[in-house]
Amino acid sequence: MELTMVGVGTRLGGRWVVDGVDATPPAGALAGLLGPNGAGKTTLLRLVAGLLEPQAGAVLVSDPAAADPTPSVPVHALARRVRARHVALLEQDSGAAVPLSVREVVALGRIPYRTLWGTDGDAGAVDRALAAASAAHLADRAWATLSGGERQRVHIARALAQEPQVLLLDEPTNHLDVAAQLSMLAFVRDLGVTSVAALHDLNLAAAFCEHVIVLSAGRLAAAGPPADVLTPALLREVYGVDADVLTHPRTGRPVIALTGQVTPPP
Ligand SMILES: Nc1ncnc2c1ncn2[C@@H]1O[C@H](COP(=O)(O)OP(=O)(O)OP(=O)(O)O)[C@@H](O)[C@H]1O
What is the reported pTM? Predict the structure, then answer.
């Protein structure tokens, strides 16, 4: 599915926290959404998910592979059920203590597919999503008893159960140990679904993302392949850090080597 942001902006608390962002994450691949704290990543994901209506510009979706390709439509204009079958958002730390089992939490992702009688045409969808997120062994546990990393896997399973064509993830590697971070991002990268993940770890973004979108104070600072975008000059300008960017000797991907120096703002 094609996802296009055209001049997207919104004001919150009296100022533009996302301001005129143009971006087209590559279809069927994983894009990283980067930027310092407060740069507008979560707000942009909420705009892309249609949870916030842009006050400027639009987020458009279209599916060129569909038998009857629909013209690009603004996400926020889609009916809620239709939108939920297109776009899933994994929010940051959405860990309320609900009295549900893991299987019931993942089944929440199937609500957009339920008929008026409450039945779901695809009885295996919850089990498939649990297995894909390496959470099948947790299926009968009470949600409230899970660790942070286990919850994160279940959140992914719930988003997968939604079978979205666009998957949005806000810091999906939070709470995960290093091996689980790598597996999570490799898994999302290989899904073949247009995915956008807000990430703080620049090396994870450089290793797993085909494309990165960098925000700075609500505006687009740069976008493109990590090797082109993540330059020492950009890291200095956007994050205020001093770094060298090396090439990994085996993977050929960029590696950001921080010197430990924080540079004064320009
Ligand atoms: N409801 C709101 N009312 C007022 N200001 C808001 C609101 N929501 C977010 N903001 C502000 O908008 C800016 C962008 O916030 P956002 O959460 O999108 O940033 P972020 O890049 O996701 O940050 P972080 O990396 O810290 O999670 C911040 O300055 C934040 O304080």
Answer: 0.91
